[in-house]
Amino acid sequence: MNQIMNMIQLKIQDLTQYVEDNIGIFHTKRIESLKSLKLKTVLRRKNPYLFKAKYLLTAEQIIRKLTDAYISSNEEALFGDWLEGLANY
Measured between alpha carbons, how far is 75 from 72 in angstroms, rounded to an integer? Predict the structure, then answer.
């Protein structure tokens, strides 16, 4: 029983170390993506008519929702890639 507990603890310590060593990659890619974000890119990837149908009437409201949706999707993809790396580890 002690051997099993030591193996589990070692694996958790290894995973914790991996996360500590590599979580910065996710944050760096996220920041780089935000720095290079262009309205033209957001408009190409999201359907602005959907937001108009949601009764968003001002340009500010539409752009804010489009941008929020784009950023959220992008963060999900980046985090999914990072988690895949963790799973492979």
Answer: 5
